[in-house]
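User: I would dearly like some help making sense of a protein record. This is the protein in question:
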Amino acid sequence: MPPSTTRRRRPKAKTTDESEKSSSDQYLSRAVGRALNVLECFPDAFSAYSLKEISQRTDMPESSLFRLLVTLESRGYLQQNADGSYKLAPRVLHGQLRQRANAIRDLVHPHLVELARQFNETTSLSFLFEDHIAVLDSIESFHDIRAINKIGRILPPYASSMGKAITAFQDRAVIDRLVEVYGLFRRTEKTITDHGSIFTEFEQVRQTGYAFDRGEATEGGICIGAPIFSHGSRVEAAVSISVPLIRMDETRQRKLIAELLGATKKMALALKESA
């Protein structure tokens, strides 16, 4: 009987990238990968999800996911709320908050530059890092007499315009923690240190959508800050325009407020579109 003439199809040769990926995949731990998938499904410090929601976000069965959640909680990577939902624990948040802050800085920077060019005054961006508010970005004015906002500077939550703009929109527990960690003391003669007056001003900030620092944190200037709403009413960042007293009047102040509020709306839209 003559040999078969049927030709076998040769397997398709793998490319270099595919070969390297296949080689490296064999060393990956599935258990660790699943744990990382769970942690990475939380986009920020504010998000909290139930077992069912995490299952849907990670495409993992609830039965095996439950054991994973209990393990992550016992090792301090997750925390369970009173309602049974889970959120990221503080030991995880620092790196994620920094990543989030950097992403916001990159998205907001062009708008910050535009504000600085429009008014030739110092514009700044700040971010809420769990228990303190710090300056993330700053574009200085070209004037000889100008405000300076050093990147990394920790802001008083009750005396600076960006501190107020962020703090006013937090839960009471977060507000109390921010004030406690920073410390309540008088920075200038105009600093408000009375709790009742501070919370009255926070209410005013929530109503108007912007905050003032009239020489309360630093003497000699006026700073106007406005929050950036990232998710609904959630605020984790704010922008400010700082002006020396010699270049401020009522007409210019109204224009600054209007342009600042318009800019923060554009920033909020940019954050929403990038999510």
Notes: The first strand starts at residue 78 and ends at 80. The CA atoms of residues 198 and 216 lie 12 Å apart. The beta strands are 78-80, 86-88, 122-129, 132-139, 154-155, 211-214, 221-231, 234-244.
